[in-house]
Amino acid sequence: MASLPLNIAIIGAGLSGLSLALALHQQNIACTIYESRSAPLNTGGAVMLSPNALQILDALGVYDRIRVEGYNFETLDYRDASGQLLEVYEFGGKKKYGYAGLRIYRHVLIDELLAMLKEKAVPIVFGKKFAKVVSETEEEVTWEFAGGTTQSADFLVGADGIHSTVRRYLYPDLETTFTGMAGVTAAVPTEQLKLPVGYHIPVTVSTPQAGFVIAPQGVDGSEVLIGKQRRVAENHDKAGWDRILADKEEFVKFLQKDAEHFPEFVQNAVSHIPHDKINVWPFYVVPKLEEWASEKRRVIILGDGAHAIPPSAGQGINQAFEDAYIFALLLGQADKVDSKDSLGFWQRYRQERVEKVLLLNSQIDFRRMPKEEQDKMPAGSKKDIELSWLFEPDFKADVDRWVAGQVSKGA
Ligand SMILES: Cc1cc2nc3c(=O)[nH]c(=O)nc-3n(C[C@H](O)[C@H](O)[C@H](O)COP(=O)(O)OP(=O)(O)OC[C@H]3O[C@@H](n4cnc5c(N)ncnc54)[C@H](O)[C@@H]3O)c2cc1C
């Protein structure tokens, strides 16, 4: 059993770190966020939130504040260039799953989380870069910041992203794997597209050359994200990516390439692309990690640092919210259950869902392959996609059931 009250340090003020702080506060657990940047990281653009994450944001009191700040939608269409509907993928559903999907600018979501943390007086220290863990005992962990100052807490949580420094304490030699693909996106006014009347977006239009994504954003959908995936021959370090990303015109040309094979509204979409609206997301993956916590269980990693997920099912951020919320629910019961056992349950529970998401990704990737490629795959590959396990979990009931089982075992 952990001695209460607990004191948690969170490294990173991204979406995982901010939502974790809010969830811990709800459990009356004190925490401080340390962020290396002088302001929150905003990689730009909008993100898509699905019902599994929205029920968490609802439980944390965030949903009512953001629902009216984003674009609500329920399905993603897949069409060929002639306009034929190939498939409809659900990304939410008010009736079916309790929540429509929500496309919201990342900075709007971050600002709302920051405002709520401020209202609750949860401290966030910007410009404080975690360097390394100095020591860990059964009771606490001590770490060093860049510059040499040290600090201690009951738990240190690495919410510091895909290239996590905290993770190095658990896995000194681990390297993330670059998938060789990057998402290239831009934002343009919706009216520029001159979409046919009644044409549903979000949509992915597929041709043998590429898949072209169009997704509305802004409360009224007056802007759309447009994008394609691009092969990138080699991995780069940060300086290398920065150099590549600086050549915006190159990405405009990439988005415009093969436009003649697409319907006229795609050609309109790429006819004028402002450089400052271009975004590039190189896809990295973290290999499956046996442990998301150190041996003494005082150092934990979550979010992208524990399991970066490729984008097919749009679950990267949504899964990070799940990590944070369930971790906080379990720590909130630290007076009843040994936190080592809780962490073991947390990782098993979360990893099982992440693995199901990876499987879902491959099902979705399969369906986006050209027909001739699909035909070469084993029969049964094209199973129907069933999403209630993803969109309708009852996290609180699952945690309460597990805690009750542990308590009765100990009784
Ligand atoms: C261009 C782009 C577009 C994306 N679009 C989508 C999308 O549409 N949908 C989706 O689901 N996912 C998307 N992703 C992925 C998504 O951003 C991640 O899954 C999500 O941000 C993970 O959140 P996180 O909090 O774990 O990590 P991050 O958002 O990376 O946050 C980590 C934070 O830790 C800080 N930090 C790092 N090191 C230290 C240190 N040593 N000390 C202190 N602080 C530190 C960083 O500055 C940062 O603020 C996109 C990613 C990119 C790059």
Automatic annotation (TrEMBL):
Question: Alphabetically, which GO biological process terms does the record hold?
Answer: secondary metabolite biosynthetic process
Q: Where is the FAD-binding domain?
A: 8-341
Presence of the UniProt keyword ATP-binding in the record? no
The record's section on Pfam families has: FAD_binding_3
Single GO MF descriptor:
oxidoreductase activity
InterPro entries xrefs: FAD-bd (IPR002938), FAD/NAD-bd_sf (IPR036188), FAD_monoxygenase (IPR051104)
Signal peptide residues on this chain, from the entry's feature table: 1-23
Coiled-coil ranges from the UniProt annotation: none
Keywords in alphabetical order: FAD, Flavoprotein, Oxidoreductase, Signal
Where are the membrane-spanning stretches? none
The name under which this protein is listed is: FAD-dependent urate hydroxylase
Q: From which source organism is this entry? A: Lachnellula suecica
Corresponding gene? hpxO_0
